[in-house]
């Protein structure tokens, strides 16, 4: 997990830190949008109460696959 670099009172951020933070934020936004889109299908947002093993994967994988298909 990448965390953006913060500036302190004694050490302000330089241009390399700014560019690194922009790269981190670009990847973070893509990941957050994909999780949000899977929640739209209610595959991740709602608690699945079935007792069969690995049944939740049968709902999460198609939602992730639909989102990947939409992105490409």
Helix content range of the residues, please? 55-70%
Main beta-sheet annotation? none
Total number of distinct structural domains: 1
Order of helices and strands: HH
What is the end-to-end distance?
24 Å
The value of Rg in angstroms is 18 Å
Structure summary, number of beta strands: 0
Write a concise synopsis of the structure shown.
Helix content is 57%, strand content 0%. By secondary structure, it is mainly α. The longest helix has 26 residues.
What characteristics describe this protein?
mainly alpha, 72 residues
Describe the protein's architecture and organization.
Helix content is 57%, strand content 0%. It is an all-alpha fold and 72 residues long. The two termini are 24 Å apart. The mean pLDDT is 80.
């Amino acid at each position: 997990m990448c965390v953006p670099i913060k500036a302190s009172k004694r050490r302000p951020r330089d241009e390399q830190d700014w560019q690194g933070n922009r790269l981190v934020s670009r990847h973070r936004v893509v990941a957050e949008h994909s999780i949000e889109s899977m929640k739209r299908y209610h595959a991740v947002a709602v608690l699945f109460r079935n007792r069969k093993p690995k049944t939740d994967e049968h709902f999460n994988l198609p939602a992730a696959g639909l989102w990947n298909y939409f992105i490409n």
